[in-house]
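Backbone shape codes
____________________
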Amino acid sequence: CEWLERQGFSVTYLPVDGFGRVDPEQVEEAITDETILVSVMAANNEIGTIQPIAGISRIAHDHGVLFHTDAVQAIGAVPIDVDAMGIDLLSLSGHKFYGPKGTGALYIREGTRIEPFIHGGGQERGLRAGTENVPGIVGLGQAIELATVDIEGHNRRIAAMRDRVIRGVFDSILDLRLNGHPTERLPNNANFSFRYVEGEAILLLLDAHGICASTGSACSSGSSEPSHVLLATGIPPEDAHGSLRLTLGDANTMDDIDYLLEVLPEVIERLRRISPLAPPSPRAPEAD
């Protein structure tokens, strides 16, 4: 969007609610006679919130506007039907469903006019000139087939582990919040904000126990700034700094969840004991 603005286009950015969801009514209010495209993430990569894609696309089409969704995080994780959801353009990335890294695809509904990505040859129907990456294409195709062959059953297994993580964390740790929508979220995502601690410190201690996690998106790793996604949901910066994102995958088991729930409370307690932000623990009454 910033690149489009540098090319002279006018871009409207919409806010999200406390769960990170876009309000379809605000989308409709923002559309003007000059609007040519509405673009929304299908699901957020940090907090896992799933957007009301079908409703937003219907509003866009009612105004004669094309609809695009960044479905990188959603493809392979939740069912996507471009016809039922009214999607004109959809972008995806292979590594999110165990395909070859560096591969991706752009779905373009037939009849949608689009400028070629690379000019020159006639490959990819004239939209992306150059010799095709055949191994990457085959790997991407095979990966999406495997990811969607039993997507409902796969989701139930992953979501069961996610729900156990969320319940276990809330049962054993105080002063925290679940980031993202409580139900309309990706089956593999759990994102928390822990008060009085730094997310980077949590990661270091978890890593020492062999647990991989993150504090935000992989795209912004290395940045010391709090997540702009969390800030957009209204979380104070000091709480956003204490965020932890846990993402589950096919290789995870309930034994992994048990281990996490054994280690994480100890990590948070240890960090809060040395945190200057944490309130002092109540002292036991002295005996007479």
Q: What stands out?
A: Residues 176 and 194 are 4 Å apart (CA to CA).
